[in-house]
Amino acid sequence: MSQSEMHHHFLIAGAGIGGLAAALALRQVGQQVSVIEAAKELGEVGAGIQLGPNGVKVMARLGLQEALMKVASVPESIVIADAQSGKPISRMLLGQAVTQRYGAPYVSVHRADLHAVLLQAARDAGVQIHTNQLLQKYEHSAQQICRLDGDLAQKYDALIGADGLYSAVRAQLLKDGAPRATGHAAFRSLIPASHMPPELCTPHVRTWWARDVHVVSYPLRGGELWNLVVLAQQAASDQAGWSLEASEAQVIQCFDRIEPELLGLLQAGSLAGWRRWNLFDRKPLSAAQMAQGTVALLGDAAHPMLPYMAQGAGMALEDAWQLACSVRMHANVPSALTHYAQTRAARNARVVRTAQRNGRIFHLSDAVALARNAVLAWQGTQVLGMPWLYGYSARD
Fold first, then answer.
1. H/E element holding 395?
2. Which residue, among 341, 344, 355, has the nearest Cα to 392 in the 3D structure?
């Protein structure tokens, strides 16, 4: 994108990955941007994330691929095994094979590191970021947004709700209630390399599948840390939070039986400590819901999803880039936001639905699981698929 004459003042609620990426992209097309964040200090919670080629390509277009690669790891493959027997199921190539096929690598990165790269770039670009500020109320028309916080009234040309799962912008815009408790939970541990079983300190994303549960492990920070996540179907819980207390017993009881190599990895996770995160999602939004007049939603505020596509961050980055593309094309803000929503809604919905489907596939049992494994084994080693997902580029 080329720098253009400044036209509009955007207010972005939320300084997470999606909000900062949107702020930076909008600055690169000449917009004035202010970001408000409810937290007192800027930083990202969570642990590791996987970022597919579609997300890495957005980072490249933002001018941040080099900075990203300094803090990311590039796994060579995804290795799938049975959690009870340890028997290999399939292997999908990443690394250079993915770069050649899709034009960018598949990486794993600590969420805090990705956030820090975006935060520094946004500040360098002149984005105004204000912490400890929660958007309490706003009024909007076809021409303007007025932020109303107590005695404070500030006017902007547009409002972007990038304020996450419990978005205050969405609550006022759509009045569609709380997100859905899915009955899925993620137990997370960050393991120092020194505590990892040596046989598992390899440059791969490793995953084990069993009935109603699967495990994912991959390197971060060049192998200094390993992200370990146990994703299990349990009784639905409305308890929110990224870092709830969890115990080894809660993790182990997710499995009927655990093969020795995986058990050693889970024990390493117990030494490092477990945290729990109950998973929520929502029904996909239509374009007419995603943008209304001078207000639009982005990232988890628009389309929270289960993590079974590893695309939460990727979709937020794509949203951010498309938003800037649409603003560059349309001088009129409502027209730009409408174009943004019309371009993004169907794709976001497809990813949400595919993530739900993958959760069912990963957690199969008995004869159906055996059939799934046979199909994957017959296909053999192959380059990671889904060109519709990884080959995507934002549209003008």
1. none
2. 344
Q: In the structure encoding, which two tokens stand for residue 216, read together?
A: 């994912």
**Domain spanning 9-179+282-387: which CATH class is it, in words?**
alpha beta
**Residue type at 71?**
V
Q: Which of 32, 24, 31, 29 is nearest to 62 (CA)?
A: 24
Q: Nearest 5°: phi and psi at 347?
A: -65, -45
**pLDDT at 151 (0 to 100):** 60
Measured from the Cβ of residue 201, the count of other Cβ atoms closer than 10 Å reads 14
User: Taking the complete model, does pTM exceed 0.70, yes or no?
Assistant: yes
Angle between helices 312-329 and 17-28 (to 10 degrees): 20
Report, as an integer, the average pLDDT of 112-132.
96
Which candidate, 149, 114, 178, 29, places its Cα nearest to that of 316? 114
Domain ranges of the chain: 9-179+282-387
H or E element: which one contains 16? Answer: none
Say if CB 63 and CB 57 are below 8 A apart: no
Rama region for 268: left / alpha / beta (φ>0; ψ in -120 to 50; rest): alpha
